[in-house]
Design goal:
The chain is an alpha+beta fold. It has 12 helices and 14 strands. The strands form 4 sheets. It has a 5-stranded antiparallel beta sheet.
Amino acid sequence: MSMTEGPAPVRGEAINLEQRAALSGFVGLSLKNGLLNLVTLTLYRFWGKTEVRRRVWSSTYLNGEPLEYTGRGKDLFMGFLITLAVFGAPFLLVSFTAQLLGPAVAALIILPLYLVIFFLFGFGMFSAFRYMASRTVWRGIRFEARGSARDYALSYIGYAMLSVITAGWFWPAAQRRLAGLLWGSLSFGDRPLRFDIEAARKVAVYPAFILAGVGVGVMYAVIVGVVVLLSIGAKEAGASPDEISAITAVAIVVLMLIAAPLMVAVVAPYQAAKLRATAAGLKFDDASFRFDLKWPAMAWLMFTNVLLLIVSLGFFMPLIQARTIKFLIGRLRSEGLADLAAARQAPQGPRTAEGLADAFGWAPI
């Protein structure tokens, strides 16, 4: 290179994500999935979940071209059956046997069993993420999640134990590191993304975490205090035990309804900060990301999602998932270039990988 030549130009293209879903279309899908789940005793959920993903993926556009979801309900169902046979039955057998051996022996068995549960939970989270990545296609190229579900599960256990030892103080740092292990494992074809933990740490999360912890603790103490005072007052007024129980139940419901919006308001800043930290750490070539996400908008999303879930008796879960993804993608920003055209095909992903995640009730969508 001569002295007069400038630096080589950065290759690639800007990253622009859009979510174009018409949310009204998910109302009918929600009702259909809910009714079929009732008729099939929830077995239809594997195919219903697949249809939701296909619609969400196909309405998500990267640089003007839609994503494609190639997963199948059969894959999810087979993963569930494998998990039930390999983990579910032995777990129930050990738990039942422990109860027959007396409290002392049961404690020696149950405590390690909880560690196994944490391990399986982490294993399931990574496995579900890896499955969804391998079934996500853009421009004919599959995504891939590298790394080990076992290593992620061991990290999950370690971080959970540190959080317990520190009375919860380590949990925000743990969630940041766990997010890094997930998103840092992702690649588009053979082009790896990476997670910059130092960039993620520049986003302050602990002030919002403290607010959430203190706020929820105070509200819980107020609810307990009011219920206790009402019970004492009813007893002194000569109310029967049944009347006291009824008064207590009504008071708890009313107080929880009053406190729910306040709890959302104090938790939302932490949820928003956590998402901003995750986005700040994610890098792809020279492209970086950020969430333009403020806590009032996050609080409104959380509150309306809970309201929709309660009013619909859970039927509107697909709608809630779709509107949440639309909300987040609409606030995701990217700067810099990524050489997407240089990606080559990733290997085929696992056939069944979400049984554990389904068993523990965890899945991003």
